[in-house]
Amino acid sequence: MASVDEFLRVMKDHDTATAALIAWCRRHHPCDAEAIAITLHGDEEMAADRYHGPLQPRAGETLRRRRVWLHWGRRVLSEAENWYIPERLPLPLREAVAAGSRPYGAVVAALRPERTPLATLRTDEGGSDQSEAAMLEQLAPAKGFSPPEAFVLHIHAIMSASGVMLAELHEHYRRDLLP
Q: What CA–CA distance (Å, rounded) separates 25 from 170?
């Protein structure tokens, strides 16, 4: 049976979580679908004073919060909350994100982004690199996710390309990810 450790290795081999999920699902869930689909649960402008993360919006930049569920067929793989600044993307990519039909990672893949995990919480037997209480406290402000028992892995990361920080990512991987 595939494990969280195996999935984390696949994540390290790909520029985006979307690419990692596609590779994972083609191997472990090949009959369920052929592509990742999203359910967009919101993409809204946020006041910079309500944000306390690493993006550091500059004057004239817009801060947005996007919430999505990523699916492989009927299987919900992850629920994510992404904070991003559209002005840091080339116009065609900004328009593609705004359209809301593709995962953020799929849209920005051409930029060859780098993901830098800031914290990982595993709810399987493998432990985590941060205390569970501290990670759950960080996740608490993100309302609307499935109950904690639905998840096997939480990742807090930043995404950058060419030295520009593009997004702060809060990714919550559901138990359905594992075969």
A: 20
